[in-house]
Write a structure and sequence with these properties.
single chain, alpha+beta, Pseudouridine synthase, 13-stranded mixed sheet, two-stranded antiparallel sheet, pseudouridine synthase activity, PsdUridine_synth_RsuA/RluA
């Protein structure tokens, strides 16, 4: 039975437009609704609610801050603001090249029934190289010889290179060989050398070995951490891992000479333990050609350590490398996987491979005019 109009007005007095304009609900039980309305229209109760909400929010923020403070602090700086746009353009360029890549026999460094090693071009993804291998293997077969029908090879990437890094890539032709060779890389039984063109202040050392931590920061970016932080937890559930690299200077501003990679291994006692931030604020006036001997295989390891030493790789915008140098724009970083040495996963024979050097390495031994 409908209530008389005066009784309705007594139960539900007009609500100030400050809180509801127009009303956001309809009344189904006046006796219960009146209590709700009185609660909502009571400024004291609203203040209590706001205080409780603010307290809960502050408590959550304090907890998050405490959790972040428990993580180790990276020693290397965050990515430069300009790197995001430049990296995106480079990624789009590499994707557009994927359908155009066609490796030839001149790109093959080594080939047998178990694996093939090629000289990867700069600015190409590893997956693009892998997808071009079947065509390469078919074209390398002499068409005048009768072709034996066999099962297609089970191709795998035994090692990976960054998109803009050129040089030696190993592709295995069976699951079994892939497992053995990948384990050899993981266990650091493969000896590797790289060559890089860096821009910075000429180093005061001819040869240096350093060991640091390596991991992703809270923004998912690879950073250098202190050696003493190895094993500590990082945001996302990962932890700081160790990385060690030996560097030697080959030339500075065109002055120097090319020398063969050293076969001596770095002793643990020779390693400089990284505990402080790297070289910063130096003038980038010198061209420094270096060779790197990574003792571990962390993502972007050489690039990060070059940045830490104050000689970032030319074109490496992600890690503070110049992308414009002496009137020229560099669309990729200049890092080359020069050599690999390992025991053959099937025969056990020692395999030593060298990739042809890119043009910029030869130019590094010519003094600038």
């Amino acid at each position: 039975m409908p209530l008389p109009l005066p009784f309705r007005s007594h139960i539900l007095p007009p609500i100030p437009s400050l809180f509801f304009s127009p009303p956001l609900f309809s009344i189904k039980n006046p006796s219960k609704t009146s209590a709700i309305v009185r609660f909502l229209c009571n400024p004291c109760r609203l203040s209590i609610m706001a205080d409780k909400t603010h307290f809960a929010s502050s408590k959550t923020n304090d907890t998050n801050d405490t959790q972040l403070s428990n993580y180790p602090t990276p020693l290397s700086p965050p990515l430069p603001a300009i790197s995001k746009e430049l990296e995106l353009n480079r990624a789009m360029s590499a994707s557009s090249k994927s359908s155009l890549l066609s490796l030839s026999s001149k790109d093959v460094i080594f080939d047998d029934e178990w694996m093939v090693v090629v000289n990867k071009p700069q600015g190409i993804y590893c997956e693009t190289v892998l997808s071009s291998i079947p065509q390469l293997l078919n074209s390398s077969t002499d068409s005048t010889e009768p072709r034996i029908q066999t099962n297609p090879p089970e191709l795998h990437l035994a090692n990976r290179l960054d998109r803009d890094t050129s040089g030696l890539m190993v592709i295995t032709k069976s699951h079994k060989v892939a497992g053995k060779l990948v384990k050899a890389f993981t266990d650091h039984k493969v000896r590797k050398t790289y060559i890089a063109m860096c821009i910075g202040s000429a180093p005061k050392w001819d040869r240096i070995s350093l060991k640091s931590g390596h991991g992703r920061s809270k923004f998912g970016v690879w950073r250098v951490y202190a050696a003493s932080d190895v094993g500590r937890s990082l945001p996302g559930g990962s932890s700081v891992r160790d990385m060690a690299t030996t560097f030697e200077v080959l030339s500075v501003n065109g002055q120097g000479r090319f020398k063969e990679p050293s076969k001596s291994r770095t002793n643990e006692e020779e390693l400089l333990m990284v505990e402080d931030r790297g070289v910063t604020g130096n003038e980038k006036n010198d061209e420094v050609l270096i060779r790197a001997y990574p003792q571990s295989g962390r993502t972007h390891q050489i690039r990060l350590h070059c940045q830490h030493l104050g000689i970032p790789i030319r074109g490496d915008v992600k890690y503070e490398g110049v992308y414009e140098w002496r009137g020229r724009i560099y669309d990729a970083h200049e890092l080359h996987a020069e050599s690999l040495s390992f025991d053959h996963p099937v025969t056990g024979v020692r395999v030593e491979l060298r990739a042809p050097l890119p043009l910029w390495t030869m130019q590094a031994f010519q003094p600038a005019l």
